Amino acid sequence: MAALQDPAVAARVEALAERFAELREDMRDTFAGAREFLDFIQHWAAVVATQLEDTTTAQATITALVQRTLGLEGLGSVKIQMDYPRRRCWILCPRGAALRVMEALRGHSMDCKLSTSYPPQLVGAPSAMPPRLPSVLCYKLVARHRGRFVSIYDGETEYRLGETVAQTARPGHHGGFYVFRTAAQALDAPFPTSSKLKGATKALLLVEAGEPCYEYRGGKLACSSITPIEVVLRRVKKAAWKV
To answer: Same domain for 175 and 124?
Structure first.
């Protein structure tokens, strides 16, 4: 205690205390930034197209391909950044749309892949990001009936890629659309014996589920809207579904 009465020691302790407070604040900011980034990459994917010869033409072509693949509304949720010196292009898009974007690019003989890094000019501040999409990505088992994806249960509700269907979900299995957290849970989902298309050919869709959602056992959710964004399995091979 006597040592702390020394002015030099007291000044040093005070300086260290201030430095510790600064480090603690920096740590808090760092963790907040890490959480924000982890939340970001759960919803967005970066596709990089490389070895582009005419980068100006390539950017126009990529923009047209993305619009054709995702639609004009979908293009609004994508950011495209050209790296001219390195002859490559970054496409930041909703995670569920990344595979379709890559397929479109490869269809035009472009070398592309999912990127494990996110260029700062694309991530940037939240205001620079594309509009945030619904945060719940789930799976839904549907019937393939007369060239359409339809509800196994009622045999009428149609699910089209990129189009949202809505019905308010309420607690206690009242209303909404049933989806599952994982593909395995969706594939193992039982259906009532009254389901109209229980014996039809099945397909598995990746969907964006909109709030409010109510979760039940086995990863099952009833959500107020769903937007199919990708066909995971066009034909599900399984002998019979549970009753």
So the answer is: no
Cα 183 to Cα 181: distance, rounded to the nearest angstrom: 7
Q: How confident is the model at residue 38 (pLDDT cuts 50, 70, 90)?
A: low
Domain boundary among 105, 128, 151: 128
Kindly tell me if the per-residue pLDDT of 133 is higher than 60. Answer: no
Residues 168 and 195 in one domain: yes
Q: CA torsion, points 66, 67, 73, 74, in degrees to nearest 10?
A: -10
The pTM of the full predicted model, rounded to 2 decimals, is 0.46
Q: Residues 157, 225: one domain?
A: yes
